[in-house]
Amino acid sequence: MNGALSLETRRLPNGLTVVVAGEPGSPVVGLTVLYRIGSRLEPRNRTGFAHLFEHLMFQGTPGAPKGVFDRVCEGSGGTNNGQTRPDVTIYVESFPSPALDRFLWLEADRMKGLAFEPEALDNQRDVVKEEIRVNVQNDPYGLFEYQELPKALFGKWENSHDGYGDFHDLDAATIEDVRSFFAAYYRPNNAVLAVAGDLPAEEVLAKVERFFGAIPPGDTPSRPDLYEPPRSGPALVVRESALAKTPALGMGWRMPPRTGADAIPLLVLGELLHNGRAARLYRSLVEGSDIATEVSGGFNPFQGGPWYDGTTLLLSRIAYRRGVAHGRVLEAFDAEVARIAAGGVPAPELSRVKTKIRADWYAGLESRLGLSAELAQATAFDGRPDGLLEFPRRVEAVTPEDLRRAASWLAPAARATVVVTPEGGATEPAP
Amino acid sequence: MSLPPGLPPLLPERPLATPGVVAATLPNGLVIEVVPRGGVPLVSVRLVTRGGLSDDSSAEPGLALLLAEALKEGTASRSGEEIAAAAQEAGGDLASGAGADALTLAVSGLAPKAPLLLDLVADVVRNASFPAEGVARAKDLARERLETDESDPFFVAARAFAKSLYGSHPYGVLAPTPASIGAVSPARLRDEGGRRLRPERSLLLVVGAVDPDAVVREAGRLFGGWRGAGEAPPPLREAKEPPGTGRFVILDRPGSVQTTLLVGLLAPLRTSNDAAALELAMTIYGGAFTSRLVQNLREEKGYTYSPGAGVRWLAARGTVRSRAAVRNEVTAAALGEIFREMERMGTTEPENEEMERARRVFLGTKAIALQPGPGLADELARLWLLGLPPSEIGATSERLAAVTKGDVARVSREYLSVSRARVVAVGEAKAIREALTPLGAGDPA
Fold this sequence. Notes:
By secondary structure, chain A is of the alpha+beta class. Chain A is 42% helix and 18% strand. In chain A, strands 1-2-6-3-5-4 form a six-stranded mixed beta sheet, with helices on both faces. Chain A has a five-stranded mixed beta sheet with strand order 7-11-8-10-9. In chain A, α11 crosses α17. Chain A starts with 5 loop residues before the first strand and ends in a 9-residue tail after the last strand. In chain B, α3 packs parallel to α8. The longest helix of chain B is centred in the N-terminal third of the chain and has 18 residues. The chains are: A alpha+beta, B alpha+beta. At the A-B interface, α2, β5, α3, α4 and α12 of A face α2, β5, α4, α10 and β10 of B.
């Protein structure tokens, strides 16, 4: 990326993979601890459990009771967050560099074990329900692209179930579930730790060994095959929302494995269609016609880049105007894809799209936290961070012919669509 | 709180440093600030013009938003599509928007493309043509987006809160109305664009891996001939405390499973002697995860996912505001706790540990936000709009160190006063009104 970045990768004897990115400049450190478990592999009768568990990682340990983690974090000038994704869960912190030892201690402390207190589970169960109320139940569109679209698109339970969870499953979760999930997935051999800052790599590696080296590993978790071939027929779900005042729809397609020849071309195609005011769908559906008001989406939207197990989706989310039939939105989308499949993409446009992808990639690595999180995620899938650094070169290699081939993955017959319309249906003429 | 055994000590703090800003002022009054830096080869360019929504007359609410949107529809030499393609060629996407104090154009891209980005921003701000077709489309989109926004409880609450707190002051309007959108014409936008977009009320900010002297030279060439047209908008008057009536507003949202609560008062000016104490007070009260409000409402009671509070500085007095989205059944209980925590801030002084934690997290969060990139550009723009120099960043540590516990309690009595606070609740009225009545709720608006 830039000449000043130095990267060191090491695997400790207990299996913890460590990446250190040294970069001169700002006195801020980014730290990411990633566990290779996300919502797709949570237990079958416990939808939402991976996310509920993420909340419990902040609820105390035997040595640092509830409240200590956040007080030490903020009292050291830092901020933290957690995020549950389909295949990984990440814990991220930003802080001034004099606090590095403290944050390594805090992360090692919770990798050793949690407090496993029923009161904390009950409290966070309530908090998670409020999170679901504010983001789903009280939202006019209810995150339908995360919640309902995977259900319509995929067949395998891992890919199709609701990662936020239903309240019945959340209510059923016990402290024993928390213990067994921790033992199965929250071990050093199933984790990646990445540090980015203006720091000497050897010194950081020595500190990580000191704090984490003695944490015992666990069994290697099994990873079922999550791949699913493209749908052989379309799926369509139309529902009314009492809260929405304008309609929106989400389309999804099952995607090929991330190591295949079509993954990066599909990523480029997703950007070409969706990213920014120059994108094809913005030009044709928003600016060039009276169909839509907003378009967004792209390849592997819930984890980013080419990082996923088995399959992922290409998402297209379109907010459209009252009085427009959803069939007209689909037709306009299909026409745009058909143009690419038939005629490819003009070289200047492809070049601009690649430039935009490269700039966005740099922007993701600009903050120390972004750099550490991206390094951790790439390393979690490949065992080394090189895939992240090679990403711009792989994008650069995509040809117009690759895009024509990629466009064939977005066939109408392979699509799942979820439509959300205002209650009363006044905006949805008969198809 | 006792620290766990074995926790390593903190090493000595490093004070927050003012970034190295290269500044220049063109003869036409345009201020230029460039922050060169290493790191990723990106550059962030923004043009900030004072005014924004506060330039709008009461007869034309939200005009600044339409103006910002329509700027991207074309110039004398570029169509809207060509503007978008030029931004994309540099690796960016041109964004425009209007806030209470400013109209802003912003675009980022690869550092070697800085000349193209500067050219694009200069072209848009100087030569916007407001083509009839583009303006019609911008109006259509604004109408549809307003309708979509009407379904968002935070939007509805924030709009009502601004009206309640600011009354007829320009800060009382956050959005257009269907009628004000309908009345907009290309000619009106052309006139207002010329009147409002003036070099003497603008700042050009460039942050990135660039040569600052080259940027200043290039900016001089591109913006040197820029002039406003017509009479400049008048300066904004300072906002005044609203009258005591209409203090508590309930807005009905049928089918809502939560109530969106906003509670707050006017903030002082950022240049006031109370500013540093208020920043610390708000950090202790609701501005951090370990603040009293978040610990109480979320970590103890489980009433809400993401409560919080903060001070938002504006040029003519901003707001001190608490917010929470809570399930219907605990709406009154949650508002009662917000009132209790507001009062407690004024009646008892904070603990030493709370003061120190607040100071650390405030400075740390600032340092994180000021990592080179868009966050640094945002902060420099904010300071300029408030009439403060970039060196204010380096003065932060000292400002905070001078604040006493007594100061925190004193400013809390003034700015976290329950009896003077405005309250907005957006939710299912029939489920919450009765329970809120003892807390001061009147009839629904």
